[in-house]
Write a structure and sequence with these properties.
single chain, alpha+beta, eight-stranded mixed beta sheet, three-stranded mixed beta sheet, 40% helix, elongated, RNA-binding
Length: 424
RNA sequence: GGAGAGAUGGCCGAGUCGGCUGAAGGCGCUCGCCUGCUAAGCGAGUAUGCGGGUAACACUGCAUCGAGGGUUCGAAUCCCUCUCUCUCCGCCA
């Protein structure tokens, strides 16, 4: 959420920044409502002042045994007026709040201009894609042949876009989860957390999924529970409504969770394989930091995610999302894209973002510095470290051998009981 | 699922018959004093949000005692609804 005060004082800056994202917004309408609200608020406050003052006098008079009937009658009218105006104020408040909740974050100045993924800027390429003599097989074909993925039976159990891992496939997924969590906790200094997989509306609103993107979420019928689309939601909300001590910052969390996405509107895209599922596993990295450091922290968070790919020996590149491709809540995002041989292209496997104070304001996550008055909003960041299903897919395609078996990356073998290949 | 109890500031904990209670008292914390170590003692300060005001302070208005609504000139205190927590019973991985 944007700071209404900032919008008020930097109207044209905000308008331009939002336009850069291609967001259609009624900033002028917001500005008018805000002005109306402030005027009305001041009116109401002076009425309240009068009532408070006179009520005190009534108390004094009554104690002295004097008559206060006139004052009481006057105040009855004042109270009625306050009540009436309060209704208008509440309506304005709601309208303004709704408008603010619907506005996306402002892109950081370093974010490239552009309208779509085509305008994203590649900033580095790491590793070399494997050279194969034949045509590399897609992971879904490999998975089927090896008997470690079974999308047909998954569809029978649930429906399209659900995975069913079997045998070494299931173990590979689990090994990756353990590997990633171990690296992030022991090498990168994150604290492991295991949060709820369902969250309420307030939590979803804090991180920005709601109110705008309800259609992307699975909701439990009859409950105020949504299945999480990413661990970002429960983990960022750990400190919702809290005032942290600056000495506690930065806070790094890593969490493994399944993620649930409706993928509404993505019909026909990635219909085969593990790339786009209603349910997938992900190890997430989340940071709460002081505003001064958040962009440095974005770099290290991204590096932390990249490290996993380096250890697995998978070729990847990092791109900076352009303003038009930025997610709703993000001020700046790096996507890490892994090389997928069968598709002959890089595919997103991690998205690392700095939200600045956008989520913190929605979730009311603040911190206090010693010696300084007042509080400030923290900056929140998160990134996948990594999407596990997509990592399995990448390993299968990049580490396939001519006979259709898969060579398990060295770093993963300790987590697979020493197993070196997955064969039929 | 059934029965009961509770929700106050960073924490603990008072709030009587509604009226200087933004909130006693204690702890913690900060600053100062004192004390030749540590400890103790003394004094002052110590919530958040939104406005006004200031060069910046100062100062000042309104709101907030789980949330929302009601009664009243006036509500932490009375009434209603909801949420959450705890205890007991039942059930259960």
């Amino acid at each position: 959420m944007l700071d209404i005060k900032f919008v008020r004082e930097n109207f044209s800056t905000v308008e331009l920044a939002l336009a850069a994202r291609g967001a259609a917004t009624d900033i002028a309408g917001l500005k008018n409502k805000d002005a109306d609200r402030l005027a009305l608020l001041q009116e109401i406050e002076s009425l309240r002042f009068e009532r408070n003052t006179v009520s005190d006098r009534i108390a004094t008079l009554k104690k002295a045994g004097e008559d206060a009937a006139d004052l009481m009658r006057d105040m009855r009218n004042v109270s009625a007026a306050i009540k009436e105006k309060d209704k208008t104020l509440a309506a304005l408040d709601t309208a303004i709040q709704e408008m603010l909740l619907g506005l996306p974050n402002l892109p950081h100045p370093s974010v490239p201009v552009g309208n779509s993924a085509a305008d994203n800027v590649e900033i580095r390429k790491v590793g070399t894609p494997p050279v194969s003599d034949g045509t590399p097989k897609a992971h879904w074909d490999l998975g089927e042949q090896l008997g470690i993925l079974d999308f047909e039976r998954a569809a029978k159990i649930a429906g399209a876009r659900f995975p069913l891992y079997l045998g070494a496939g299931a173990r590979l997924e689990r090994a990756l989860v353990n590997f990633m969590l171990d690296v992030h906790t022991t090498r990168h200094g994150y604290k492991e957390v295991l949060p709820p997989f369902m969250v309420n509306r307030t939590a979803m609103t804090a991180t920005g999924q709601l109110p705008k993107f309800e259609a992307d979420l699975f909701k439990l019928d009859g409950w105020d529970y949504y299945l999480i689309p990413t661990a970002e939601v429960p983990v960022t909300n750990i400190h919702q409504g809290e005032i942290l001590d600056e000495a506690m910052l930065p806070i790094f969390y890593t969490a493994f969770t399944p993620c649930f996405r409706s993928e509404a509107g993505s019909y026909g895209k990635d219909t085969r394989g593990l790339i786009r599922q209603h349910q997938f596993n992900k190890v997430e990295l989340v940071k709460f930091v002081a505003p001064e450091n958040s962009y440095e922290e974005l770099e290290t968070l991204t590096a932390n995610a990249e490290y996993i790919l380096q250890q697995l020996n998978l070729a990847y590149r990092v791109v900076t999302l352009c303003a038009g491709d930025l997610g709703f809540s993000a001020a700046k995002t790096y996507d890490i894209e892994v090389w997928m041989p069968a598709q002959n292209q890089y595919r997103e496997i991690s998205s690392c973002s700095n939200f600045e104070d956008f989520q913190a304001r929605r979730g009311n996550i603040r911190f206090r510095s010693k010696g300084k008055k007042g509080t400030r909003f923290v900056h929140t960041l998160n990134g996948s470290g990594l999407a596990v299903g997509r990592t399995v897919a990448a390993i299968m395609e990049n580490c396939q051998l001519p006979d259709g078996s898969i060579r398990i990356p060295d770093a993963l073998r300790p987590f697979m009981g020493g197993q070196e290949t997955i064969e039929k």
